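Let us work through a complete example step by step.
Step 1: write down the sequence.
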Amino acid sequence: MEAPLPPRESGRFVVEHSQDVFVEEEGVRRVAEMLYALRKSEDLTASGWKKANPLAPSPTSDHALNWVFVVDTMNFSFWPEREDQQCEVTYRGTTYYGYMTLCAAITRAMEEGIPITEPSYFSQMSVEELGRVLRSDNNTPMPMLEERHQVLTEGGRVLLQHGGSFRSFISPAGRDAQKMVELIVDSLPSYRDEATYKGKRISLYKRAQILVADFWGIMEARVEGDMPNLDILTMFADYRVPQALVHLGALRYSDTLMQTLRNGELLSSGDRREVEIRGCSIWCVEKIKAHLWSLVEDRDGQSCNINSAIIDFYLWPYAKQHHKEMAHIPIHHTRCIYY
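Step 2: predict the structure and record it as tokens.
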């Protein structure tokens, strides 16, 4: 079987053939202008990692790298079946929803003395033990417990075969972001976020890329963050950032697709429309980045180091902060282990 196109090239291919999702040039320029105004803000730097991950251990902690491995391995499918029935996890007086329930649950478990960041433990924990770790504060459990258990124990076994930590597992890739993504995808089946679109094998690699970006964020906080080819990473194609891109006018859904999403239709992983939403989001952010770089070069006479990962790190919390304003734009619903 032919190797899939890398995520950036996959995004370009999907945009060229998309039937229901479209990149809007005027919106792209508008978002680039918005980011240009924020170009010197900490929100658009790797140092914003801790801000984006407030429940993570200190980046200098021995647990930090294994924490991001555990969280990123289970970082998928948090949307509720009904908006009034969301999983909730309360930690230190704050109640969290969505992805943050996972972060809160893992950090809560660490405080409770459960060695949840140790591969020797999570490689062989039972479904019941993981259910206890991920327990909700209400009657709505975190979705897909069995699948989370399967991918976490699988990941733990792989780490044990490669030195017993995420740091030792990833070290053969050096500081090469491309090699890191390849190593993760080759070694961990649950990270193989691929599809066939218009007869072409493509890849989106949301979790593999965000794992590399999180590794970089921690290393940057430790002043060990030199990864010269980090720009090979694209945005992390999920269901929240596409909604923000539509809200900002950089992405457009056809009337047919918009109605389908408003009707609450579940899209299967690999469905043409699902691939178009994710693939076009990748290329949309690439276009935003390219325009931002041009603005910085033309107006400031400087090169720009704001990459697609940083733009994603900005857009994801932006979507959460402005969720009421964009509530009329439906997210797409896909139950899978990839995002």
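Step 3: interpret the result. The longest helix spans residues 272-300.
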